[in-house]
Design brief:
heterodimer, A: alpha/beta, Rossmann fold, 7-stranded mixed beta sheet, about 40% helix, elongated, B: Immunoglobulin-like, 3 domains, 6-stranded mixed beta sheet, 21 strands
């Protein structure tokens, strides 16, 4: 009893501790993909920290105003994972700052060509090029050497003035660099080259630090997720108790306490369970069942038929006045007389060749049973 | 410690003050209040150790009959005790009891009955007696489990007693036959009486007629004071469960029924009955009971018989039989005639036993194996039927072999074993082979 109390107490304490830990530990602030402060594999905190160490002032934002405020000698980076609104596209194309477009390489986002003055398009990326070489004259691309090629779509240039690097066997590339009337635009396909999970692979880190660190200031624009389930920071859940009368919360507490008391009332046993030793028992037909299984596995139809026939003769012999040691002819004639069955059929059933199939054995067993029944009903 | 259903209700009452002052403090205050009141109620309860409990129990009950265990609570304290008592028994006793709140006044006592309907043979020991002693408000109780010993012996059911009257009538017939029967084996001289029309003239005692000047006849009766030993095999064979669904039982139970019916019949016919239950060792041994008490003694001993997963040590059994039976006796061996075990087991001693005693082997057959032969819908059933036919043939051959040694073999399914053994006994008695 004392031991039980101790165990219950320990379990309760552990539970309480777990709840306290969940309540008091600060919730991890950032679960956004591609965020520069997210330490998870899909985040980009590694990139953000190294950029900051290199003296780049990083400003992560999801507000269009910050893009518009970006000065000419700075970089605006945007992650193209979803569709952008018209306002966002306008702000990004109008900004005087250089633009780095991180195109996710999927078909669900805004076309990167929209941000590059229509001089770019997308093209299926060929399978089998997981690490393409730079193979172009761009200094940043050459410094990187090779890049992760895990994308669905690559980039294709519509124009000679676009520098493309990291091409697959056909037309698609991972890197495109061009200059519009307003600013320089660099488009890179793929996400793993900036994310914590893949930034250390191949030349990913070199390309990321060089393209994003061109200026002292970086504005990292994360388009706001517009899915309705996302909690917008600053707003709060509607508390369901606020819709009820003011006393509902304490009354709920009273109900909980009553439920706990009821659990105590019903949970206490009225004395211990009583043990009882049980007698041993075995299935009585185990020998017979085992023999039957052996017959079946070996397909021993001959033995089985012989056993059935011998048992039938022994059972009916006394009834018709013969013994098991009598000659087959005597047994057959006596049985035919007693049962009125055809002697030829009886010979077949009792002394015929053993059945060759399971069906034959079943039919023989049925014939013999019928014969016994006929003789016992007389 | 235990609490009653009043505590959650009392907590629920806290809804009223909470609605009036809707603050967390109200809830906490109410719960603390309930805890304090319950704690005081607990302290006010009479301690169960101060009460005196005793149990009344019949010494034995027949299986499937109902008996009552009575627990008496005596309150020697000066306060009223409010107690609930659980008289715990093993599940096979199927205890059925209401557990009302007993208000035991100072110095008085109350009884609580628990009905027991045992479903298993043997000694049933009462488990702990659990007592809840509530305080005056009946909110909280002190709970203790006390040890109040009690053992109930559950005797075998003896279902086959319905066969007893007809067998006793047969026995009386044998008795009645004796006056017309000429002297022969298996009969002994009973008395002289006057000749009545219809008596066999060959039984007239001429010397007595001459002395008495009336025609006298001698009467005979079946021999009495023979010795019958029932040997019940409690080895692995006895643990076999036979019979179909609903009416299944262990082979041991069928053997026990046979022993009991024979005990009743044998003591009625004036024979001395002995019992031996053995497997690898002797489990029960009862030598030559006095007349009339055989059935009770047998039932008492057989209630404790349990099957063991061992093989029977037949040389030890033979030694025991020779020790128990000094004169030529009827020895009924309730065991399996298993061809696979015969040569190593029973076969080694049966010849010697059959030489010095009249042996009857009672073999329990399985009714489901017989039923299998009636329906053969598919090949699997045919193989099953063939396997049981093969074993049946081997058993038949073995029993023929044993029969040639002068041993009687009784094959019967569990429900008919006891009367079949008794019929064999009566037949042997009538032919004077005891």
């Amino acid at each position: 009893m004392k031991k039980l109390l101790i165990v219950t107490g320990v379990v309760l304490a552990l539970f309480a501790g777990l709840i306290a830990a969940t309540v008091f530990l600060p919730e991890s602030p950032d679960r956004l993909a591609n965020s520069l402060t997210n330490p998870r594999p899909e985040g980009a905190r590694a990139l953000g920290q190294v950029l900051a160490q290199d003296g780049v002032a990083v400003n992560q934002t999801n507000s269009i105003a910050d893009i518009a405020a970006a000065p000419a000698d700075s970089t605006v980076a945007v992650v193209l994972e979803t569709s952008l609104s018209e306002d966002e596209v306008a702000a990004l194309t109008q900004t005087p700052a250089d633009l780095v477009v991180i195109y996710s390489g999927s078909g669900f986002s805004t076309d990167p060509g929209k941000l590059a003055g229509g001089r770019l398009g997308v093209q299926d990326w060929s399978w089998g090029y997981p690490a393409p070489n730079a193979e172009c004259a761009d200094a940043d691309a050459l410094a990187a050497g090779r890049l992760s090629g895990d994308v669905g779509y690559g980039l294709v240039a519509f124009d000679d003035r676009v520098m493309t690097c990291f091409a697959d066997g056909s037309y698609a590339s991972l890197y495109a660099d061009l200059t519009t009337s307003r600013h320089r635009v660099t488009v890179v396909a793929g996400l793993s080259w900036i994310r914590n999970s893949g930034i250390t692979d191949m030349g990913n880190a070199a390309l990321a630090l060089r393209t994003l660190g061109r200026h002292d200031r970086l504005t990292w624009y994360l388009p706001a997720d517009r899915s309705p389930t996302t909690v917008i920071p600053g707003s709060q859940d509607v508390d369901s108790f606020e819709l009820l009368p003011p006393w509902s919360r304490p009354v709920f507490g009273v109900l909980l306490a009553a439920a706990a008391a009821a659990a105590l009332w019903q949970g206490r046993r009225f004395g211990a369970l009583v043990r009882e030793p049980l007698p041993v028992e075995v299935p009585a037909s185990e020998a017979s069942a085992g023999l039957a299984r052996l017959y079946r596995q070996a397909g021993a139809r001959g033995h089985a038929a012989a056993a059935l026939r011998a048992a039938t003769i022994q059972r009916v012999a006394a009834r018709v006045g013969v013994t098991t040691s009598d000659a087959p002819d005597t047994v057959i004639s006596q049985l035919a007389q007693a049962s009125g069955a055809d002697p030829a059929a009886l010979t077949e059933a009792l002394y015929g060749p053993p059945p060759t199939t399971d069906t034959g054995l079943a039919i023989l067993a049925e014939t013999l049973t019928d014969l016994e029944r006929k003789l016992s009903s007389r | 410690m235990a609490i009653s259903g009043r505590v959650p209700l009392l907590v629920l009452l806290g809804v009223v003050p909470t609605i009036m002052w809707p603050q967390p403090l109200t809830v906490i205050g109410w719960v603390v209040l309930v805890v304090i009141v319950s704690g005081m109620d607990l302290l006010a309860a009479v301690r169960p150790e101060l009460l005196q409990f005793s149990r009344e129990l019949p010494p034995s009950v027949r299986l499937s009959e109902t008996t009552t265990s009575t627990v008496t609570v005596l309150n020697p304290t000066r306060r009223q005790a409010r107690v609930q008592v659980r008289d715990a028994w093993p599940p096979s006793a199927t205890p059925a009891a209401e557990r009302p709140l007993l208000r035991v006044n100072p110095g008085s006592s109350l009884r609580q009955l628990t009905e027991l309907t045992p479903t298993r043979r043997g000694d049933l020991a009462a488990a702990a007696l659990t007592v809840r002693s509530f305080g005056p408000l009946r909110l909280a109780a002190r709970q203790r489990s006390l040890n109040v010993p009690g053992v109930l012996r559950v005797l075998p059911e003896f279902r086959s007693r319905s066969h007893l009257p007809s067998r006793l009538a047969r026995l009386r017939e044998l008795d009645g036959q004796a006056s017309v029967q000429v002297r022969g084996q298996g009969t002994e001289f009973d008395s002289l009486r006057e000749y009545a029309a219809g008596d066999d003239v060959r039984s007239i005692d001429w010397r007595a007629t001459a002395r008495a000047t009336r025609t006298m006849v001698r009467t005979w009766r079946p021999e009495r004071d023979r010795h019958v030993l029932m040997m019940l095999d409690s080895s692995r064979w006895a643990a076999g469960r036979i019979g179909g669904a609903g009416n299944d039982q262990l082979r041991l139970d069928a053997g026990i029924e046979a022993c009991l019916l024979m005990a009743a019949l044998g003591s009625a016919s004036g024979d001395r009955m002995s019992l031996l239950v053995a497997d690898a060792e002797v489990r029960q041994r009862l030598a030559g009971t006095a007349k009339g008490s055989a059935l009770a003694a047998f039932a008492d001993r057989l209630s404790l018989a349990e099957a063991e997963l061992t093989e029977t040590d037949w040389s030890m059994v033979a030694a025991q039989v020779n020790q128990l039976c000094r004169q030529r006796s009827l020895v009924v061996l309730i065991t399996g005639l298993d061809p696979a075990l015969y040569a190593e087991g029973l076969g080694t001693v049966l010849g010697q036993l059959a030489h010095s005693h009249q042996i009857v082997i009672a073999h329990v057959t399985d009714p489901t194996e017989q039923a299998q032969l009636d329906e053969t819908p598919d090949a699997n059933a045919a193989y099953d039927a063939a396997a049981s036919a093969r074993l049946w043939l081997a058993t038949q051959a073995l029993s023929n072999r044993v029969h040639r040694m002068g041993v009687e073999v009784v094959h019967a399914d569990p429900d008919h074993l006891a009367p079949a053994v008794c019929d064999t006994y009566l037949a042997l008695k009538a032919t004077g082979r005891l």
